[in-house]
Write a structure and sequence with these properties.
The complex is a heterodimer. Chain A has helices at residues 3-18, 94-97, 104-111, 119-123, 172-175; strands at residues 43-55, 61-78, 81-92, 124-132, 136-143, 179-188, 191-198, 226-229, 243-252, 255-263, 270-276, 281-287, 293-299, 305-320, 330-346, 349-360, 372-382, 389-398, 403-413, 418-428, 443-451. Chain A is mainly beta. In chain A, a hairpin with a 6-residue loop joins strand 17 (372-382) and strand 18 (389-398). The relative contact order of chain A is 0.11. Chain B is of the alpha+beta class. In chain B, 18% of the residues lie in helices and 46% in strands. The chains are: A mainly beta, B alpha+beta.
Chain lengths: 452, 271
């Protein structure tokens, strides 16, 4: 079925559900003690935000002047039916001001949500209904699912694809791409069994060629050949191509535990390389592959410490290799990705330390990615003046490729509605490292947010 | 004769014993120990469960105010499954903190740390937090988690210092010194003699300086005494927090599932 048609059907179904208050879902939801019913609790909230960034390396200039407006509303239709709608639009004046520096596609996709490929999809960020039964909750619609314990890195938090237009500098809540989904939660005492069905596959949104944050660290290097890169094609929207997941989460002996399994597609396209020696042409086609993923997390609190762990095991990821005997330049390997870390609480600050490692199993020497990729991260959040002044520092160091990222910032709540933030994003490392590829994009920024 | 003398001695002994007991009882009634008083305060009937709204008014040294509206649900477990009580709080406004939830499970065993979770809508995620943060201030207010009633009687040594009239109320003044090092070196509590209600608390920092003062007003709901207003003033920062408690409901039969991570993520409304 055509994706747009499928979305229209889902949209229609959601609207239909909203139009039918009290449609038989009349069991009481005990956790809603004392609730008011119908539309009496309709609420509209959101924010307007301006983020202006100044590039501190040559060429020194403003690199961002982004205005963002987010409006969300949620309400109760009946005792067991609720809805949530979140709309978000943006416009970044830099792509108009430096028009000559960016290709038209970049200006369109980065300049404004209205000039993007699918403005409705861009603006209609989340849209879902909740059906609340006694022990079961069903969420239908476009939504985000947040899994995992790691801060700033995604290990099991891969249900939604990610928008990399702003690299990994946007908050995950803003860079996760909400997808159409059916989510069913079944609760028994302190345990929760969650089922996901994602009928339409959405891949990561890579930064476009010609934009500031386009990835170059994994660029194909083949001197003397003509390289032709073809756009990736998404799998057809059909039942066999849908994604699904299951997760059990709960509390045992004071430990917060989750175990999960995702039968999903790899959100990043794999590059299949074929070389034609007659024409010295390298054809790069991009395809999506299945990537089943097992996950496990834990967390507990011991005095001032909150140890956390997150583990995933992915089966059969396609890796690019230099091995010329490998078909289309690819080998299939499992990988193990884990995080061990802890929070440490002080009276007005929290320190989070994380050790993250990704290991390619049964490693072949020709694989371009290293067998072990290790990251250390430190995140310090503090608050002063009755939580109106909040300095923060996130630092990630990757000894595997010697790249690092440091993000200091300080936020001040001028009033309950107005927050101003000043910060810097400093990236460094070799040109072929994940962070070092953007070494020249270091920036300072100021942010103004009005919440309503 | 001998029998008569023996009866007299027995009678005298019994009378002396009774007198001693009465003297002791009288002495207890006249001046209970600090521990007795704090136990009576702790044993005040809170009911089986409570729901209420709380308005936090945060006032800085320039008299600038920030106001937070919250709802709070609490349930007494009285040792059932090892729990002392469970509490869940949600912020309803302002938009900056709307939807933020805090869940706490407190255990009967004093040695067992509370289990605590925080839900931040900006992350769409609940997060386990350290229970040692009882000395931490609650959401920018001048109240620590301990100040709001988490502290157990056994955690301090208590001494009756004096009796005095405070705001027209006859009070015991009890000095409490923590057994383990905390943010306060001591506290002085003014306890109303007849109802065992706390009227005022002075908190002293580690250097012995008067750090904060709490003044409390009470309301009676269905025969149970609950906070009406708590006014905490920090003498060093000149910041103050008023908590006004309204719409108190007691013994409404709150279900266990109210105090779950499920509810923390979803939120709960107050009618």
């Amino acid at each position: 079925m055509n994706n747009k048609l499928f979305r229209s059907v889902l949209f229609f179904l959601c609207i239909t559900m909203l139009m039918l208050p009290g449609t038989g879902f009349t069991q009481s939801a005990d956790n809603r003690e004392g609730e008011e019913s119908l539309l009496s609790d309709l609420s509209i909230n959101g924010y307007f935000e301006n983020q202006s960034a100044y590039r501190v390396q040559d060429p020194n200039r403003f690199s961002q002047f982004r205005n963002r407006l987010q409006v969300e509303t949620k309400g109760t239709v009946s005792e067991s039916l609720e809805y949530f709608i979140q709309l978000r639009g943006f416009a970044d004046a830099m792509y108009g001001y430096y028009e000559e520096e960016y290709p038209e596609t970049v200006r369109d996709q980065y300049g404004s949500s209205l000039s993007a490929d699918n403005p409705l999809d861009e603006v209609g960020r989340e849209f879902y209904i909740d059906i609340l039964l006694d022990e079961t909750e069903i969420r239908l619609g476009k939504q985000q699912v947040v899994w995992g314990e790691a801060i700033g890195l995604r290990i099991t938090d891969v249900v939604n694809p990610q928008d990399y237009r702003d690299f990994i500098l946007d908050d995950f809540i803003d860079s996760r791409i909400p997808t159409w989904m059916v989510k069913v939660n079944y609760f028994i005492d302190d345990w929760n069994l969650e089922f996901l069905w994602i009928p339409i596959f959405e891949p990561d949104r890579a930064a476009l060629p010609g934009s500031d944050w386009v990835w170059t660290f994994n660029a194909i290097d083949a001197p003397g050949t003509t390289i032709r890169v073809f756009d990736p094609e998404k799998p057809e929207t059909e039942l066999a191509n849908s994604e699904a997941g299951i997760r059990l989460s709960g509390l045992a002996g004071g430990w917060n535990l989750t175990a999960s399994y995702l039968y999903v597609w790899d959100d990043a396209a794999t590059r299949h390389v074929t070389f034609n020696p007659m024409t010295s042409t390298l054809d790069v086609t991009q395809q999506y592959h299945r990537l089943p993923l097992w996950g496990f997390t834990f967390a507990n609190a011991f005095g001032s410490f909150v140890p956390r762990g997150e583990f995933s095991y992915a089966q059969g990821k396609q890796y690019s290799t230099a091995d010329t005997s490998a078909e289309e330049g690819l080998v299939q390997k499992d990988y193990f990705h884990y995080m061990l870390g802890t929070d440490y609480s002080l009276s007005n600050a929290t320190l989070t330390l994380q050790w993250v490692q990704k290991i390619i199993m049964d490693y072949d020497e020709g694989i371009y990615e290293p067998e072990f990729q290790t990251n250390y991260s430190l995140w310090i959040q503090a608050n002063f003046v009755n939580e109106t002044l909040k300095p923060e520092l996130l630092a990630i160091f990757s000894p595997s490729d010697e790249g690092w990222l440091v993000r200091p910032k300080v936020a001040y709540n001028v009033t309950d509605a107005v927050t101003v933030t000043a910060g810097a994003d400093i990236l460094s490392g070799p040109a072929r490292s994940f962070f070092g590829q953007f070494e020249e994009n270091d920036r300072v920024y100021a942010k103004f947010r009005y919440s309503f | 004769m001998f029998t008569h003398i023996r009866k007299s001695i027995v009678t005298l002994a019994v009378l002396m014993g009774l007198s001693t007991s009465l003297i002791c009882l009288n002495a207890f009634a006249a001046s209970p120990t600090g521990l007795d008083i704090m136990n009576r305060v702790d044993q005040l009937d809170d009911g089986n469960d409570q729901s209420s709204k709380a308005i936090y008014t945060l006032i800085n040294r320039n008299n600038k105010q920030r106001i937070r509206h919250t709802v709070r649900f609490w349930k007494d477990y009285d040792g059932k499954k090892g729990f002392d009580s469970k509490m869940i709080t949600f912020f309803e406004s302002p938009a900056l903190v709307k939807g933020t939830g805090f869940l706490s499970w407190s255990y009967e065993d004093d040695e067992t740390d509370d289990d605590q979770w925080l839900y931040l809508p900006a992350l769409k995620k609940e997060r386990r937090i350290a229970a040692s943060g009882k000395d931490n201030y609650f959401m920018g207010s001048d109240f620590t988690y301990d100040d709001m009633g988490d502290r157990k009687v056994d955690e301090d040594a208590h001494k009756l210092v004096k009796s005095e009239i405070y705001n027209g109320v006859d009070c015991y003044v009890v000095e409490s010194t923590p057994k383990k090092k905390g943010m306060y070196s001591r506290r002085q509590t003014w306890v109303e003699k007849t109802k065992w209600l706390i009227q005022k608390v002075n908190y002293y920092d580690r250097k012995g300086r008067l750090l904060k003062t709490l003044n409390m007003q009470w309301q009676n709901v269905k025969g149970l005494w609950t906070w009406k207003r708590g006014e905490m003033r920090n003498h060093l920062t000149k910041h103050a927090t008023l908590i006004d408690i309204t719409a108190v409901r007691v013994n409404t039969g709150l279900k266990d599932r109210m105090f779950s991570v499920r509810t923390l993520k979803r939120g709960a409304k107050f009618k």
